[in-house]
Specification:
Rossmann fold; ProC C-terminal domain-like fold; 8 strands; alpha/beta; 11 helices; 268 residues
Length: 268
């Protein structure tokens, strides 16, 4: 593309707001037009990012493409039906809602209407470190997919998946990992407080250690289990702790938590 497109964002909640922040961080704040019914929330995001706010969703639909639709899953199909006249073939609509299906949300879109894609990203988009999963359905114009990939790449890495089932399961992993990581950090912070370390200082140390661990795994090309064994000296206190039943409980609890979320996504 000779010029970066004017991007629309409808819905500035957790994900939509993260997309706005990530695009702004990448230097595209002046190429974004966004709308949210909650004006106070929208103005807060705008003040942080420098993006322009629209008075109505129709303004975004008329002036932008691609358009990120970041509303609740139950609101997607009614929104598309209500604004069908603005969704002509020149538009690319990227639905960011989880737990929806293209056949359901796009049933009103016929030939001559917008190209509808699904993508799942995470709040890590705010810092340009998201793993975004993109579903380009059969029949979607290659140009639509390439534009979506180009824009989404500003938020981190993009992985194109082949089916909605695959998208939903990958989304559990990519979308929930920030929450799992933060839960671990909460535990580390609580421990620091228990042993007399200032909670803010403990949180900073824990976060730095997690970031350093992720960097080491990437640079050394190691699996987590392999790197974990490097931390523990043979016969030492840490190795004995890893052999305790609580270690397997922690691992299995994390897995079961993600399974429960996956079941919820499928049942929506």
């Amino acid at each position: 593309m000779s010029e970066f497109p004017i991007i629309g964002i409808i819905g500035l909640g957790n994900v939509g707001g993260a997309v706005a922040m990530g695009m702004s961080r990448a230097g595209y704040s002046k190429r974004i037009l966004a709308f949210d019914r909650n004006l106070e929330k929208a103005q807060g995001i705008a003040s942080l990012t420098g993006i322009e706010l629209a008075a109505e969703a129709t303004d975004v639909l008329m002036k932008c493409t691609p358009i990120f639709l970041s509303v609740r899953g139950v609101q997607v199909a009614p929104f598309i039906a209500e604004h069908l006249n603005q969704l002509d073939s020149s538009k690319i609509l990227i639905c960011l809602a989880a737990g929806v299906r293209l056949d359901d949300i796009g049933r009103d879109l016929q030939s001559g209407h917008a190209c509808l894609l699904r993508a799942v990203t995470s709040v890590n988009a705010a810092v340009g470190q998201a793993t975004t999963l993109l579903l380009s359905p059969p029949g979607a114009a290659p140009d639509c997919t390439s534009v979506a990939i180009d824009v989404l790449s500003k938020l981190g890495t993009v992985r194109v998946v082949e089916s909605e089932d695959q998208l939903d399961m990958w989304s559990v992993l990519s979308g929930c990992t920030p929450a799992v990581t933060c839960l671990l950090l909460e535990g580390l912070e609580h421990f620091a407080s228990e042993v007399g370390i200032d909670s803010s200082e403990g949180a900073q140390i824990a976060a730095q250690c997690v970031m350093a661990t992720m960097a080491a795994l990437r640079e050394l090309d190691l699996k987590p289990a392999e790197y974990r064994r490097r931390v523990a000296a043979p016969g030492g206190v840490v190795e004995k702790a890893f052999d305790a039943p609580i270690t397997e409980t922690l691992r299995s609890s994390t897995t079961e938590w993600l399974r429960a979320i996956a079941r919820g996504v499928v049942e929506q």
